[in-house]
């Protein structure tokens, strides 16, 4: 996600909009004047709500979600790893007053996806000014995959260096011996320096001087599609912001990220140890302005749900399909249907989770951002449904459980 941040920094080509007002699923309580100790009533109310959320055997999208200790789950922009009959949910541990990383990456574990146990901070930020993940940096969308050949758990995340707004556009890499950490930060970088994409258009006729274009003019859009920013960033490496990781059936892993000023997605093949890049990568939807990629595979076909780029404010989701990860991706209409479909139900995609032990069962995961108090941002989990044409769609449900996957 690219947005105005707490230090006021922003990046061109992202048009931030006011965030719509919604109640995040909360239910207010009218307290009568004759209640002697209103604060005690509120405490009891919240206590009951915590217990209900922690022990419920269903999902309530958009409502506060508590762990088994009664604390709000704090794992934003996250993803889930399934390992040895346990799900591990990794996410950004948010503070109330800033979305900069003041703590690190959190992890929660569950056997049933309803009840979650806090495993703590598995990748803490550093107090060293020499560290790329110094406290106060921007650390977003952590994803973890397991490498069967090395036995290591590998984490990638979008990283912006402290005090530089969104100008760094790097990917951070960390590794651990166990799913619950601690993860050791290895390095950050921009992917594929001095390497051109496999599907790079010819540079013939391309004016590579950005100053010669008026932003969003037809000439500028055509130049972006031809690789204006790809060429600009060739020697430094490609920009990497909102991201996903995907491990295919053959064990090969891929990093999918918003690049080229968030105008183009790129998908890059990782080395066998998942700690670097092979140099094989492609551009997806040049000048399409996609971010927040979330991938899944069904019956040999690949699906990717993304969002537009409107800062903290939600927008209509997009759906892309391909017959191979490194093949051509086709853009389709918004997969959301019904009320608030044009705002992805006031949320932004982050991950699609395949359910273990169930055939073609997937959960769409998204965040409702709340920049005025980040910790109260809520989570939208919905079942991915498939129409008669085989295409996936998302429909709002106030409450649902895993029995929907028959």
Explain this structure:
With 406 residues, the protein is mainly beta. The protein has a single domain, classed as Tachylectin-2, Chain A (5 Propeller). It is 8% helix and 35% strand. The protein contains 3 helices and 22 strands. It has a 4-stranded antiparallel β-sheet, with no helix packed on it. A 4-stranded antiparallel β-sheet has the order 5-6-7-8, with no helix packed on it. Strands 9-10-11-12 form a 4-stranded antiparallel β-sheet, with no helix packed on it. Strand 10 and strand 11 form a beta hairpin. The longest helix has 18 residues, at 38-55. The relative contact order is 0.14.
Strand and helix layout:
Elements: H1 38-55, E1 76-83, E2 86-93, E3 104-110, E4 117-124, E5 138-147, E6 152-160, E7 170-176, E8 184-189, H2 218-226, H3 228-232, E9 243-247, E10 253-259, E11 264-270, E12 277-284, E13 291-298, E14 301-307, E15 318-322, E16 330-332, E17 336-337, E18 348-354, E19 362-368, E20 378-383, E21 385-386, E22 392-395
Parallel strand pairs: 17-22
Antiparallel strand pairs: 1-2, 2-3, 3-4, 5-6, 6-7, 7-8, 9-10, 10-11, 11-12, 13-14, 14-15, 15-16, 18-19, 19-20, 21-22
């Amino acid at each position: 996600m690219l947005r105005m941040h707490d230090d006021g920094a922003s990046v061109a080509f992202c048009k931030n909009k006011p965030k719509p007002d919604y109640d995040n699923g909360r239910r207010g309580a009218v307290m009568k004047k004759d209640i002697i100790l209103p604060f005690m009533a509120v405490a009891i109310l919240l206590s009951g709500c915590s217990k209900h959320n922690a022990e419920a055997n269903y999902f309530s999208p958009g409502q506060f979600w508590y762990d088994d200790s009664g604390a709000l789950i704090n794992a934003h922009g996250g993803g889930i790893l399934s390992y040895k009959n346990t799900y591990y949910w990794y996410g950004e541990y948010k503070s109330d007053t800033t979305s900069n990383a003041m703590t690190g990456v959190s992890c929660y574990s569950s056997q049933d996806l309803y009840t979650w146990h806090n495993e703590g901070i598995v990748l803490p930020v550093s107090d060293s000014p020499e560290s790329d993940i110094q406290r106060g940096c921007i650390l977003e969308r952590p994803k973890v995959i397991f490498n069967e050949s090395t036995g290591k758990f590998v984490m990638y995340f979008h990283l912006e260096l402290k005090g530089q707004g969104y100008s760094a556009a790097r990917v951070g890499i960390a590794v651990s011996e166990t799913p619950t950490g601690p993860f050791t930060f290895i390095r950050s970088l921009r992917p594929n320096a001095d390497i051109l994409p496999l599907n790079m258009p010819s540079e013939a006729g391309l004016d590579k001087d950005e100053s010669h274009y008026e932003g969003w003019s037809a000439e500028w859009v055509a130049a972006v599609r031809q690789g204006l920013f790809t060429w600009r960033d060739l020697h430094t490496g490609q920009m990497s912001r909102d991201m996903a990781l995907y491990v295919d059936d053959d064990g090969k892993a891929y990093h999918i990220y918003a690049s080229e000023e968030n105008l183009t997605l790129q998908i890059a093949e990782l080395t066998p140890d998942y700690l670097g890049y092979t140099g094989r990568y492609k551009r997806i939807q040049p000048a399409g302005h996609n971010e927040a990629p979330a991938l899944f595979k069904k019956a040999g076909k690949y699906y990717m749900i993304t969002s537009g780029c409107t800062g903290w404010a939600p927008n209509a989701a997009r759906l892309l399909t391909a017959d191979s990860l490194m093949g051509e991706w086709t853009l389709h209409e918004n997969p959301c249907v019904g009320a608030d479909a044009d705002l992805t139900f006031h949320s932004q995609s982050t991950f699609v989770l395949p359910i273990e032990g169930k055939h073609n069962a997937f959960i769409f995961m998204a965040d409702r951002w709340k920049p005025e108090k980040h910790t109260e941002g809520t989570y939208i989990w919905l079942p991915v449904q498939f129409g008669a044409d085989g295409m996936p769609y998302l429909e709002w449900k106030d409450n649902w459980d895993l029995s929907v996957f028959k």
